[in-house]
Each structure stands twice: as structure tokens, then as C-alpha cells.
Amino acid sequence: MRPSVGEVTMLEGIATRYVPDLVDAAAEIIGFLRTFAGSAREEALANLASIDRRLDVLAEGVERIESDLVGGVSRSLEVHSEFLRQRFADQHLDPIIDV
What we know:
Blueprint: H1 5-33, H2 38-71, H3 77-90
Helix pairs in contact: 1-2, 2-3
């Protein structure tokens, strides 16, 4: 197996599992915003902002993996997973995904 197979698998997992889950959650929250008011609305907006930050973290991870693949520099999945875990921690987010 080529060393890049793991990176491609991780990209596929992000694209087919994590991003759709986050987008679905965002769509659900946006639907709730039409009916929520007061503190419930504020909480929904905070949840939406949290999803946005999670998507930003995933975007950074995808960019890093893609640049490694294009540059021919293969890193282990543990390195990429640790990068994402650290970025989630830096953003004070609980990773809802198991990277």
C-alpha cells in the first residue's frame, strides 16, 4: 500500500461523515431559529457558532492533508489526527468526531 492511502481515507471520512453531520446539525439549528426566542435563540446561535468553528478546524485539517499529498510528503494518520485534536482543543471545542 502507498503511504498516502491513509490520508485519502481520512479525507474521505471527513467528506462523507464529519462534514455532512455538521452541516445537517447546522441546518437543523437554522430551522429552530425561526421559532426560538430569548435565551433559547441565544443558545441556538451559540451552537451554530460552535459548528462553524468545528468546520473551520476541519478545513484546516483538510488543507494540511491535501498539501501533504500534493507535496509528496506523507505523514502518518496519527500525526494528522493529533493535529486535528490539538486544533479542536485550541478552539476550546469538544471534538464531536473521533479523528
